[in-house]
Amino acid sequence: MKLGKTGNNKFLKQFNETSLLELIRLNKQISKADLAQLTGLSPTACGVIVSNLLEKGYIREAGIGISKGGRRPNLYELNPKSYYSIGVDIDVDYIRFILMDITGNVEYRDMISSRFDQSVSESIAFIEKKVRQIIERNAIREDRLLGVGVSVPGMVDNVTHEVIFAPNLGWERVDLESMMSGMGNFPIYVDNEAICSAISENWIGCCTEQRDFVCINMKSGIGSSIFADGNLYRGCSGSAGEIGHIMVDHNGPKCACGNYGCLETLVSSRSMVEKAQKLVRQGLIADFSDELDINSINSIDFIIDAVKAGNESARVILVEAAGYLGLAVANLINTINPSRIVLGKELVKFSEDILEHMRNIALAKALKYPASRVEILASELGEDSSALGAAIVPLKKLFGHRL
């Protein structure tokens, strides 16, 4: 990968450092001679930059390479456990935390229960306390913390990074970055949870080689994010990919956004749990236990476990949701024309036969040619994908990627 000729001018120092750092990341181990060849910088300039990166602790020597004529060259690689980032994923019933080092290795992860009616200030205080604990327990110097990325289930403005609307949290027009800026002497980055998932899939997941793909997440709501021609596509204001608020049944339930029959009201974990509770109250799920406490039906795990135990009524709930999702996926195939669609968060809990039902509907309803070129699969990153992506955001900034 050749990044193109960079400059030796002092005003390009930061750009040149970032370019070399990215090449070291991509190549795992590389010599100064190869860095010079790939960048177009002189060997002397490369030597100065490599020395600066060594001094700052970003990289380290990685041994001796193979000779291409002359002395065997020194190799350089990213320095593990030198710099860190923290990812925070906020949802209605939990907050996930990830500590990641400069190489993308996860050093710590945790998930803590929270209340869906928690105020913004309560959430910030909770997050700040936990971030402080992570920093102290891992003995991280603040100048070695590249930043804290925060993932939220809602629309985030492209320019201001303000949380415009997070209906499931009850948040509207929240400048979370500014409100969290007093947490420490490090930057705060706020982004949409589906976008964070796409970032993690592109950085460390199943889409590192994909240029056109879509990630779909399901939890309290349902959303998607789009990579087009190798870059995130956000739209003019940052709301691209809000498939959860596409109307799929005009006679459907009322959504938190104010409309009726949104995909989110029929496919999200919360909507399926509410449907299971309603059917039990009405006595329409007779094959559930008579001793069942309706309040114990509080997560999609209950429904999935019931399906595994052979409960047909529970299976119908998942099949119907998969059908609606298949229709939405067909529309994505037709309009976005991705090479891959990745299903994340709680969609990874669906059994293969349920996912296959969804795929069959999507491929049957989509146009044949784009449908023949797409792969639909479950994420290998699971429910941590948004927290991982939030932690990767500060790393992307360090390596010169557009956010």
From TrEMBL:
The alphabetical list of record keywords is:
Carbohydrate metabolism, Kinase, Transferase, Xylose metabolism
Which BP terms from GO are recorded? D-xylose metabolic process
Does the keyword Transferase feature in the UniProt annotation?
yes
One annotated GO molecular function is: kinase activity
Give the protein family.
Belongs to the ROK (NagC/XylR) family.
- Briefly state the protein's biological role: Transcriptional repressor of xylose-utilizing enzymes.
Q: What is this protein called?
A: Transcriptional regulator/sugar kinase
Origin species: Ruminiclostridium cellobioparum subsp. termitidis CT1112
Q: What is the lineage of its organism?
A: Bacteria, Bacillati, Bacillota, Clostridia, Eubacteriales
